[in-house]
Amino acid sequence: MSYEAVPNHQVQDNPAVSLNARRGGFVHGTKIATDRGWQPVEGLQVGDLIRTMDNGFREVSRVATDCIAIAASESRSENLPVRVPSNTLYNGDPVWLMPEQGVALDNTKLSQGPITLPISMPVVPARVLSGTFRLSSSAPSLLFEVCSLFFEQDEVIYIEGGLRAFCPAGRFGSNSRPANASYKVVDAERTEDLIDMVAHSRDIAVLANSLGALPAPIMQNPIFPARPVMGTRRPGRPGRPAPIF
């Protein structure tokens, strides 16, 4: 999806445009893993089933869309989305992460060994990942749309490239974390130590899950081969006589 630059005076006169890019959410065009396969985030609605990391498929309870404007002179990383170049992870196309979008990291994949955290999936804001694995801070355009997904409780979902994205029930860092969650939003001090280790890691599994990057539709229930009822003879099996009709 392409976006057109809008003059600053038009942005200021448009109440539908947010001037604050320091937030979470997904840039329009980002694909989300659903029970119908990979779907663009702007096409999702309340009630759609989204694949989560810990709780199977969960319904979207609320969808919010905002228009983000970024000044052409903006250079601060905390106010710029993070660009994941093509083929950096499991993505064929570039993926954009809003600076405060939570990303769950696989603590067990760090080459230097896991840090001392009680959980295996610490959640950090995407902006701190800029500079690791070819990720960089920039913007898809001066004006673009962002969609936020909300659930009944905090969830981690799979997005394009196999990234594990944190979706809060309320605001980022709320206390709606499920009891069985394998992830947790970490504080600034632990984030700094964690990112230092991520920067030295060569395993992209720290950031992305290859299973979450499968392009085929993700079925809600597993498919098992049909087996005959116990005692039923299957015609044509070696060593068995052919059935007589």
Summarize the structure.
It is built from 2 helices and 16 strands. It has one domain (26-171, 178-206): Hedgehog/Intein (Hint) domain (Endonuclease - Pi-scei, Chain A, domain 1, Beta Complex). The chain is globular and about 75 Å long.
Distance between the termini: 61 Å
Strand content: 25-35%
Arrangement of strands in the largest sheet = 1-7-13-2
Approximate helicity band: under 10%
The CATH architecture: Beta Complex
Return residue spans where pLDDT drops below 50 for at least 5 consecutive residues. 1-13, 222-229
Helix/strand/pairing class, anyone?
mainly beta
Let me know the largest β-sheet.
4 strands, mixed
> What number of domains?
1
The total of beta strands comes to 16
Structure commentary:
With 245 residues, the protein is mainly β. It has a single domain (26-171, 178-206), classed as Beta Complex (Endonuclease - Pi-scei, Chain A, domain 1). It contains two helices and 16 strands. It has helices at 8-13, 188-199; strands at 17-18, 26-27, 31-34, 37-40, 49-51, 57-59, 62-69, 82-84, 95-97, 102-104, 121-125, 136-137, 143-150, 155-159, 163-167, 183-185. The protein has a four-stranded mixed sheet, with no helix packed on it. It has a three-stranded antiparallel sheet with strand order 9-8-12, with no helix packed on it. It is globular, with a radius of gyration of 22 Å.
